[in-house]
Automatic annotation (TrEMBL), chain A:
This is Cytochrome c oxidase subunit 1. One of its GO terms (biological process) is electron transport coupled proton transport. Keywords: Cell membrane, Copper, Electron transport, Heme, Iron, Membrane, Metal-binding, Oxidoreductase, Respiratory chain, Translocase, Transmembrane, Transmembrane helix, Transport. Cytochrome c oxidase is the component of the respiratory chain that catalyzes the reduction of oxygen to water. Subunits 1-3 form the functional core of the enzyme complex. CO I is the catalytic subunit of the enzyme. Electrons originating in cytochrome c are transferred via the copper A center of subunit 2 and heme A of subunit 1 to the bimetallic center formed by heme A3 and copper B. It comes from Silvibacterium dinghuense. The gene is ctaD.
Length: 554, 246
């Protein structure tokens, strides 16, 4: 094994390493023109945090408006604009780029033992496209907003609204390219840049899940892109592809849109599942149970994800035969997700579990995602869906999956790799408190929405019958708690940049390649190409090393 | 503390290596670089395929629904111009292949020549396309801007055998022309982008950039150009030829 043994820095007197990717060059230009995947990861972290808080502010407005049954804070049309912007920003500018853009960028090359992603310049371009798309969304917001809902449903979007659909549609088109390029970069890196000995089945599961999500990005995003181009063409020059007055069919838009947007929910959730696999295995000090099953389940999710889009259209006039078939297929896609949950549970069983902050978030993920996924199965069954669709039940369902699942996973990942990214630890007790606050706030916000939906409160209305008020007040109160839960990490993570304890290369005693280089890493990650001759998550091998030694590559 | 062992400055890491100037820092070997870039290009073309795929699906669906309107619509296109353009594009694919071959053999003059001919053929294609668009404009066949159904509710003197369409079906020819403009327009946009890149390639090829062993860029652009050609080879029969016999 081409490795040397170096001793861990003494935690009390330790200093940060002399040369890191952070101090390699200075100045704004060195960041804005960087081609280092780690720096680009940080650029992403900054932009998605920014958009998360704008989207969060919009969510706050929505919840405040819903505090009372009347429309007293926002007029109905302003309300429509606010929830539309909330949806667009959260989905396209936060959830989709979150894990692949930040952690994926930072970690994929290191985890496979490469010096960078395959196409560093295109990687930088991805970030710029994402940012430009974001600015366009903000421009649409400032110049008057969009009120179609994030789904841009035709003919509403093409004929009936007078808002900035064109700007917003083009913005999504641009961010779509960002996502396509990220996907291509990750796929090529995983295929062609793996270090010697890093076979497919030695890859960390984080890589597998990002790889599967990238397949979805590459195959799905162009279809969304063309759907939006056609919407824009229909609005600007009036071609008639979706326009029923000319013989076009609005349902076609739905097909094209959901062909992307159902897989898109897996673009969002799969990378998060990758994070959870890493965290659970590290803090129970065991190889993930059924590694191959978990790896393949990611790919299975990617494949099945393309077969179920029509479950978003059950009440839109599709034929009952196709609805039936898509209902069955929808059940199928739950299987690989369930495989993951079971295997994580089996990994925890008899593991030596410790409850560090990332682990707390991971537990949050498992609980909330399970609830979200199970309610998804309800929705997939035709009869239930007809009753529950377009009610708050849907809102609760996808927030359990995307906020309870994905956002928890993102926070788990940020805490888990923070020491690697910055070289410093975050304050342990405060971060545990934040995880707890987030969890409580989340349940309080979204659980009442299941009941509201079941009772029949429709989504996307600014006013509602007074009997729903109690549950809505609960939900708004929960959103406030949740807001605090998100602000806390912002504050203490920033604080830790300067005052956090020095982390050292491997604070969690984890096994991945990323833990065997210094924190923060040097510019090209490894001084010599690492050679891998052990399986992923081989904690026994690690345990055999003496306490003060770490296996170092290069 | 000895983490310096793994913290040497990166610049030194390469001191010993000796690699050709076009090998990017993060690749281990020329071979790896070549494989990675061409794999990346194939993936990109896959996304392009999905992009056009959305429109092909729309075409297939509407064609089955509004078959007579699609037949009438396709009769309005000039098979002659379409065929000439098809031949031009196939020729340009050939000259592009010859350019790639010249690059691989390190023949600078030949490379510049074949790239220039490719560019020229591309421009001719676009010119013919533009004249077709102008004709459609004059005939009031552009949906949204100046569309009029009158050509389809009466017997067209150019095609006496073709029956006049009932008004509701005649209106569906708008869908046909919407797709015609969306699909050929997207294709033309890809051509324009390709021609811009070609101009850049010619400029750099004259400086000797691709004839000293580094042919990835020309090869990958060749793939893109062939892809444009292939898309046209689907568009032409679907839009111009099918149902012509009716
Ligand atoms: C476990 C598998 C899942 C199943 C079976 C499922 C099923 C469904 C169904 C049937 C709907 C349509 C409800 C309706 O509009 O009537 C729906 C909506 C939705 N789901 Fe899921 N889902 C699953 C996982 C996910 C995941 C992982 C996410 C996000 C990461 C997600 C996000 C959404 C969103 C955003 C909507 C709302 C779409 C809209 O109407 O605007 N779902 N889901
Ligand atoms: Cu779906």
């Amino acid at each position: 094994m081409s490795s040397t043994i170096v001793s861990l820095p003494d935690q009390t007197t330790a200093t940060l390493p002399k040369h890191t990717y952070l101090n390699n060059e200075y100045g704004l230009k060195s960041w804005l023109l960087t081609r280092d995947h780690k720096r680009i990861g940080i650029l992403y972290l900054i932009t998605i945090t920014f958009f998360f808080f704008i989207g969060g502010a919009m969510a706050g407005l929505v919840r405040l408006e819903l505090l009372t049954p009347q429309t007293d804070l926002l007029a109905a049309d302003t309300y429509n604009k606010v929830f539309t912007m909330h949806g667009i920003i959260m989905i396209f500018l936060f959830l989709v780029p979150s894990v692949p853009g930040t952690l994926g960028n930072f970690l994929v090359p290191i985890m496979v033992g490469a010096k960078d992603l395959a196409f560093p310049k295109i990687n930088l371009l991805s970030w710029y496209l994402n940012t430009i798309g974001g600015i366009m969304v903000l421009a649409a917001l400032i110049s008057g907003g969009v009120d179609t809902g994030w789904t841009f449903t035709t003919p509403l979007s093409t004929h009936y609204v007078n808002t900035h659909v064109i700007t917003a549609g083009l913005a999504i088109f641009v961010t779509g390219f960002s996502s396509i390029f990220t996907g291509i970069n990750i796929i090529v890196t995983v295929h062609r840049m793996r270090a010697p000995g890093m076979t497919w089945f030695r890859l960390p599961l984080f890589i597998w899940s990002n790889y599967a999500a990238s397949i979805l990005m590459v195959l799905g995003t162009p279809v969304l892109a063309i759907a939006l181009v056609l919407v824009v063409l229909e609005r600007t020059i009036g071609i008639g592809v979706f326009d029923p007055t000319k013989g076009g069919d609005p349902l076609l838009f739905q097909h094209l849109f959901w062909f992307y947007s159902h897989p898109a929910v897996y673009i969002m959730i799969l990378p998060g599942m990758g994070v959870i696999s890493e965290v659970i295995s590290t803090f129970s000090r065991k190889r993930v149970f059924g590694y191959t099953a978990v790896a393949f389940s990611s790919v299975a999710i990617a494949v099945f994800g393309f077969l179920v889009w029509e479950h978003h259209m059950f009440i839109m006039g599709v034929s009952s035969y196709s609805a039936l078939i898509f209902s069955l297929l929808t059940m199928l896609v739950a299987v690989p997700s369930a495989i993951k949950i079971f295997n994580w549970a089996a990994t925890l069983y008899k593991g030596s579990i410790t409850f560090e902050t990332p682990m707390l978030y991971a537990f949050g993920f498992m609980g909330l995602f399970t609830i979200g996924g199970l309610t998804g199965v309800f929705l997939g069954s035709l009869g239930m869906d007809v009753h529950l669709t377009e009610t708050y039940f849907i809102v609760a369902h996808f927030h359990f999956v995307m906020v309870g699942g994905m956002l928890m996973a993102f926070l788990a990942g940020i805490h888990f790799w923070w020491p690697k990214i910055t070289g410093r630890m975050y304050p342990e007790n405060l971060s545990k408190l934040a995880a707890l606050v987030t969890f409580i706030g989340f349940i309080l916000t979204f659980f009442p929405q299941f009941i509201l939906g079941y009772l029949g409160m429709p989504r996307r209305y600014a006013a509602y019958p007074p009997e729903f008020q109690v549950l809505n007040v609960l939900s708004t109160a929960g959103a406030t708690v949740l807001g605090v839960g998100y602000l806390l990490p912002m504050l203490y993570l920033t604080w830790s940049l300067k005052y956090g304890k020095i982390a050292g290369p491997n604070p969690w005693q984890a096994t991945g390649l990323e833990w065997q280089i210094q924190s923060p890493p040097v510019v090209e990650n490894f001084l010599e190409t690492p050679v891998v001759d052990y399986e992923a998550y081989d904690y026994e091998w690690l345990a055999n090393k003496t306490r003060n030694e770490v296996h170092t590559v290069g | 503390m000895d983490s310096h062992a793994i913290a040497t400055h990166p610049e030194h890491a390469h001191a010993g290596h000796d690699h050709p100037p076009f090998l990017r820092h993060h690749f281990e070997s020329v071979e790896q670089q070549r494989e990675a870039t061409s794999f990346g290009m194939w993936l990109f073309l896959l996304t392009e395929f999905m992009f056009f795929g959305g429109m092909f699906v729309a075409y297939l669906v509407y064609r089955t629904w509004y078959y007579p309107a699609f037949v009438a619509g396709s009769h309005q296109l000039s098979v002659l111009l379409g065929s000439i353009n098809t031949v031009i594009l196939i020729c340009s694919s050939l000259t592009m292949s010859l350019a790639v071959y010249a690059a691989q053999k390190g023949r600078k003059a030949a490379l510049v020549r074949w790239l220039s001919i490719t560019l020229l053929l591309g421009l001719v294609f676009l010119g013919i396309k533009a004249s077709e668009y102008r004709e459609k404009w004059e005939q009031h066949h552009v949906p949204g801007l100046n569309f009029s159904v009158s050509d389809f509710v009466h017997v067209n003197p150019a095609y006496p055998g073709q029956p006049a369409l009932p008004l509701d079906m005649a209106e569906k020819t708008q869908v046909y022309f919407s797709l015609y403009f969306a699909m050929t327009g997207m294709h033309a946009l890809h051509m324009i982008i390709g021609i811009c890149v070609l101009a850049g390639l010619i400029f750099r090829a004259r400086a000797g950039a691709y004839t000293s062993g580094h042919t990835n860029t020309v090869e990958n652009f060749g793939l893109y150009w062939h892809f444009i050609d292939i898309v046209w080879n689907f568009l032409f029969p679907l839009l111009y030829l099918i149902s012509r016999h009716q």
